[in-house]
Amino acid sequence: MSETMIEAQDLTRTFRSGFRRKRITAVENLNLAIQPGELFGLVGPDGAGKTTTLRMLAGILKPSSGQATVNGHDIVKGAEDIKQELGYMPQQFGLYPDLTVDENMNFVCDVFDVMGEERQTRMEELLDFTGLHDIRTRRGRNLSGGMQKKLGLAAALVHKPKLLLLDEPSTGVDPVARREFWDILTTLHAAGSTVVVSTPYMDEAERCNRVGLMYGGQMMICDSPSGIKRMLPGSVLALRADNLTLAEDVLKQVPDVLDVQPYGDVLNIISNDEAGASAIESRLTAAGVTVDSLRPTPPRMEEAFIYFVRQYASGDAAQAAASPTEVTA
Amino acid sequence: MNQRHVWAMARKEWLHMTRDPMTIFLLAIGPVLMLVLVAYSMATDVENVPTVIVDHDNSAVSTALEASLDDTVVLDVTGHADDQDDAESELERRDAKVIVIIEDGFEDQVTSLAGMNDMLTAGPRLRFIVDGTDPISAETAMEAVVEESERYITAQLQQTVDNEAENLDETTLAMYREQLENPVIIEAENRYNKDLKAVWDLVPALIAVVLVLPGMSISTVIARERSEGTLEALVATPISKHAILLGKTLPYVFVAMINVVLMYIVARLVFGVPFRGNLALYLALSSLYAFATLAVGLLFSILIRSIEAALWASMLFFLFPGMLLSGMFFPVEVFPFIVKLETLELPVVSGVLINRGMFLQGVGVRVLWWNILLLLVIAIEGFEIASRIFKKRIA
Ligand SMILES: Nc1ncnc2c1ncn2[C@@H]1O[C@H](COP(=O)(O)OP(=O)(O)OP(=O)(O)O)[C@@H](O)[C@H]1O
Ligand SMILES: [Mg+2]
């Protein structure tokens, strides 16, 4: 089936909140097309509108304007049809804290009409898959944060949904569990499911087919991870030096340096090509910084993400968004 | 509507209820405890009820009657008033609960045969007024004042007849003596509560009132899903909203019926309240009543977003009107606006009337049809509106 799985046009959602009913635009004129079988990552800083977008696509939040179809169904008129084939995992633990793992799973199976033998095998499979087998009788509230996330995922999978919308499924999960989590997602993806996942982790974004970068309710960039990294202007230099704080201050004064991002004992410098490594090195030495090493490094999503978000935040949003699209075009 | 989904929802809600032993204990036993507690506290022994005398007769007989009334355990003569108006103002001020008015000529009625004839035809020159506001003490006081007066009058007349015996022929004497077998009937006027039945009246009404408790607790179910964040996952599943609402209601209906049965048993065995209606009909109407209160509670639960606010709203709606109308504080009859409340579709009003009617009067559908209809309308409309307002969305 080549029909688009998710298609959004000018999707907008505003909220009125607070005492003075101030208007907040959580999602603004979002355009998006996701094909069946994609593993799509939704990234963006806190409050960018990721959750709001996923909720609208899940048919549980009405857009203020614009429209979208999921699996061919309109998200307002066809919301109930969407829910038949959708696995939705909210950002917050959405299962019942006073029910056990088994009771929660059984309820979800009931609701999705997964009955009889199919239910038995499916539950065994999912509990094995998520490692929850040994704690089937533990109550939701007594699970660790990571276990809760796994239970949430297992519950979203009982009916083998065509589409998975996962809102930060791996936040608060330990690195090993996070890796397992992504192995599960990759397996599902390989089996043909369409997965849309929001995440604050850039290494996870890296594992997606395509990534949408949201900022201030808008979809700023939507491309493959390598495409996004290519949009990063100039090149990335990794600096090791004795005084990184001083180095950072100095580099911020250099016009050709676009961004400086401390990263452990390394300073990642995004610079225009004209400002070569040697020019930067001499500036640093002049300022009294002893440079241990300064060499070009391949950009990662991390650098790209921080760079773009800073660009938007400093008000250059329009410009920053315009130039990379030219690059890809 | 998918029946399996309804049961799935009901089972889940039942699990929530039973998970915490205290919750299910309070839900199942709470209403019965409340019934026993309130009914007992209102039905305490009545002693020394303040009584005021209006004595227009001013005779040895009237003084003796006063003394014998004062000698009873129940009554306590606290003063005299010049006339009925004075005495009634004491009643209004709650300084007295019983007024005994002895009219001029009372002595004559009990000390001469002519007077006795007059009493038997025109009634005794003696009147009582009882404050019926508090039905239990009023009933006891009324019984005491009537009984004691009748005993006293009968004794006096006995003596009068004995004194006159030698002046009478056999048949006339026999006739008088026979008259004395059936003592004079004195009617007491009940000022504020025409038809005192005290505990019998109170208990059936209380059953209806405490049955609003499940209605109050259901008013938090949606708010709880919302605040625990579970609503978001729930509304993203294919379960229909009717299945959600009905499934949430069923366990509460079940609990309410447990309450009804327990309270019925307590009413019959502990308080000795008669049940004169049809038991099967009573159970059917009780579940209808439960459905109606639950429908309203559910509506609150959808309309009001926080648990606390939902609880308060349902308390204002259910508990206070229910208590007022139960006859615990005021007798039902002093409320001319009860009819207006009925049209406000307060289910508890119909519940009280149905319970009273079925326990005490033994009436059925023919008499109660109006209240049954009201409850049906409330139940159906409540669910209808609830499912129209409830959206399978967040925010
Ligand atoms: N129900 C609501 N009422 C009022 N404002 C809301 C509501 N939901 C979201 N918002 C606002 O909309 C904006 C976007 O929120 P959203 O939850 O979609 O962000 P997010 O990208 O998911 O953030 P995070 O990474 O922190 O989860 C925020 O400013 C938020 O405060
Ligand atoms: Mg979010």
Please explain how this structure is put together.
Chain A is α/β, with parallel strands linked by helices and 329 residues long. Chain A folds into 2 domains: 6-228, Rossmann fold, CATH 3.40.50.300; 234-298, Alpha-Beta Plaits (2-Layer Sandwich), CATH 3.30.70.100. Chain A is 39% helix and 28% strand. Chain A has helices spanning 50-57, 79-84, 101-111, 116-130, 145-157, 175-190, 202-206, 225-231, 244-253, 277-286, 301-328, and strands spanning 6-17, 22-34, 39-43, 65-70, 73-74, 86-89, 163-167, 194-198, 210-215, 218-223, 235-241, 257-263, 266-271, 291-297. In chain A, helix 8 packs across helix 11. Chain A starts with 5 loop residues before the first strand and ends with a helix. Chain B has 395 residues and is of the alpha/beta class. Chain B folds into 2 domains: 49-191, abc type-2 transporter like domain (abc type-2 transporter like fold, 3-Layer(aba) Sandwich); 197-394, no CATH class. In chain B, 68% of the residues lie in helices and 7% in strands. Chain B has helices at 3-19, 21-42, 60-70, 84-92, 106-111, 113-122, 135-164, 170-181, 198-210, 212-218, 221-228, 231-235, 241-269, 279-303, 307-325, 338-343, 347-361, 365-389; strands at residues 49-55, 75-80, 98-102, 126-130, 188-190. In chain B, 41% of the residues are buried. The interface between A and B is medium-sized, with 32 and 27 residues. The structure holds adenosine-5'-triphosphate and magnesium ion (MG).
